[in-house]
Design goal:
Layout (H helix, E strand, L loop, with lengths): L1 H4 L4 E12 L2 E13 L4 E5 L6 H9 L6 E6 L2 E2 L10 E4 L11 H11 L4 H14 L15 H13 L5 E5 L7 H18 L2 E6 L2 H7 L2 E6 L2 E6 L1 H6 L4 H6 L3 E4 L2 E4 L5
Parallel strand pairs: 3-8, 3-9, 6-7, 7-8
Antiparallel strand pairs: 1-2, 1-4, 4-5, 9-10, 11-12
The structure holds adenosine-5'-diphosphate and magnesium ion (MG).
Length: 261
């Protein structure tokens, strides 16, 4: 699995997206370029409404860019429908099938792909083991906690070996302690499976913890990208400095020392 996943790279080139609104054309994303290397976790960070979801949905094929292109592993994705793209997505709302067991939720994508029964059994069991839900395979989603449901969503996304995992604020609905546990889990899975992940969040602390690199957006544009430490040490503008205002360096770690709302 790992070797398969190591050859991916996402290149977003000059992506722009306008929406028609009552007040005319409005930019959601403007001339946005970003590369995500194979095996890298990049957080798209920025305040609500800055265009993060629109970028992610464009990579997934759920939005058609007004201009610009998206390449995955050197292949141009323009015009390809979502199901033909080598991506899987995890949402803030878990979007599990309520009438299916945990096992069947995870198996769904493999059944659609008409994988043989026996192989599905093996793959789903392995994936449930990986996210620590092996013992709860027969339960219905509503018999699970929020964190467990999000883990099922994660397993369902990963079971089809996507080249790229797209996450849109997947932890925002969880309470603080679960959120911290789940982000540790995501980091572990990324390392273990060599996953390439584009992770949207508006939470500075989450981005600092998870990211190999952060891409910070403001009003549809990329304002800075780099490692968490580079952000801290060299904020590119007053906006960046203010956005990471509560962050302090303690030893070699960056931590948020005041709660920003
Ligand atoms: N389908 C849509 N129609 C009209 N405007 C939209 C649509 N989707 C997003 N927008 C607008 O585009 C901007 C960026 O939205 P979004 O990408 O959801 O931001 P974020 O995920 O960072 O909160 C916002 O101003 C939002 O209102
Ligand atoms: Mg959003």
């Amino acid at each position: 699995m790992t070797t398969e996943l190591m050859t991916n790279k996402v290149e977003i080139k000059n992506l722009s997206k306008t929406f028609h609104t009552k007040r005319g054309e409005a930019f959601a994303v403007k001339d946005f370029s970003l590369s995500i290397e194979s095996g890298e976790l990049v957080c798209l960070l920025g305040p609500s409404g800055c265009g993060k979801t629109t970028v992610l949905r464009s990579v997934a094929g759920l939005e058609t860019p007004t201009s610009g292109s998206i390449e995955i592993a050197g292949q141009n994705m323009n015009g390809l429908p979502p199901q033909k793209r080598p991506v899987a997505m995890v949402f803030q709302s878990y979007a599990l099938f309520p009438h299916m067991s945990v096992f069947e939720n995870v198996a769904f994508g493999l059944r659609v792909r008409k994988m043989p029964h026996k192989d599905i059994q093996i793959k789903v069991e392995k994936m449930l083991e990986l996210v620590g839900l092996h013992a709860k395979a027969k339960r219905a989603p509503n018999q699970l906690s929020g964190g467990e449901q999000q883990r099922v969503a994660l397993a369902r996304a990963l079971v089809v070996n996507p080249e790229i995992l797209l996450c849109d604020e997947p932890l925002s609905n969880l309470d603080q302690s679960l959120r911290i546990k789940m982000r540790e889990e995501i980091k572990r899975l990324q390392k273990e499976l060599g996953l390439t992940i584009l992770f949207v969040t508006h939470d500075q602390e989450e981005a600092l913890y998870l990211s190999d690199r952060i891409a910070l957006m403001e009003k549809g544009r990329l304002v800075q990208e780099g490692t968490p430490m580079a952000f801290y040490e060299k904020p590119a503008s007053p906006f960046v400095k203010e956005f990471l205002g509560g962050i302090k360096k303690v030893g070699n770690e960056l931590v948020r020392v005041v709660a920003l709302t």
